[in-house]
Amino acid sequence: MKILVIHGPNLQLLGSRPPSIYGTAKLAAIDRLLAKTAVLRRAALTIVQSNHEGEIVERIGAAKGRYDGLLINPAAYTHTSVAIRDAIEAAGIPAVEVHLSNIYAREAFRHQSLIAPVCRGQVSGFGPESYRLGLEALLATLAGSPRGERAKRERAAR
Ligand code: DQA
Predict the structure, then answer these.
(1) Out of 7, 67, 99, 131, which one is annotated catalytic?
(2) I want to staple 72 with a disulfide (CB 3.0 to 4.6 A). Which of 6, 25, 79, 116 is the partner?
(3) Residue 146 confidence class, pLDDT cut points 50, 70, 90
């Protein structure tokens, strides 16, 4: 399974963003956690971080037909971006939204996600574990897809 992981704006600053909200782990540590999970689950990850809405939209558009799933922390764009929501919907790639913090326990403007309705689900509030759990959930969802079933048959035949 090929998974595109997108970290949205300001996540490159993890480690120096308020640790009481975001913890002390840096983005590189989260990427290592994801890479470890991917090895265990035999998935191939491409991980990108972008502060630019248009770039994220283009990455999602280009992912159609090239990736089986999308794991995304849209960060602040979660609450504002119709463009990212539409890109996920148009690409038709199964997506899972993740957040380090519990967005529902924070300011009211973070309680709405424009992205969640076009995702299979959302994991919010578990720090870096949100990413690991999100990846596991995405892969579990994909395992039931025709492509996942084919991969299972191919592994069994080896
Ligand atoms: C975030 C939550 C968002 O509200 C915020 O703008 C972020 C990070 C999280 O992972 O908790 O930048 O997506």
Answers:
(1) 99
(2) 6
(3) confident
Å from CA of 99 to ligand 1 middle = 6
Q: Where are the domains of the chain?
A: 2-157
Enter the CATH code of domain 2-157.
3.40.50.9100
Neighbours of 117 (CB within 10 A): 11
Length of the chain: 158
The predicted model gives 98-108 an average pLDDT of 98
Q: State the pLDDT at residue 152.
A: 75
Contact predicate 46/67, CB 8 Å: yes
Against a cut of 0.85, is the pTM above it? yes
Per the structure block, which two tokens stand in for 63?
């992912």
The one catalytic residue in 7, 22, 77, 131 is 22
| Coil, helix or strand at residue 45 | strand
Q: Please tell me the predicted confidence (pLDDT) of residue 83.
A: 98
Full DSSP string of 64-103: TTT-SEEEEE-GGGGGT-HHHHHHHHHHT--EEEEESS-G
